[in-house]
Amino acid sequence: MADALAYGVKVTGCTVHLIDAGIDTGPILAQQAVPVLDGDDEETLHERIKVVERRLLVEVVAAVATSGVTWIGRKATIG
What's domain 2-78's architecture? Predict the structure, then answer.
């Protein structure tokens, strides 16, 4: 969040991905954009991202539990 604010980006977000041997390198299952609003600081932006990432995680876990996931190389597909 600090980088997003420091660079003045207008959009940041969250990612749900599979876990592999690296750090944040697993195949992506879902992403959601979160706008950076005028006046945001790290706390306000972080709180807004947490709301989105919690909802997204529940949706992805439910979809994977219902439909499964196919993981080939760097690409993961639900269903």
Answer: 3-Layer(aba) Sandwich (3.40)
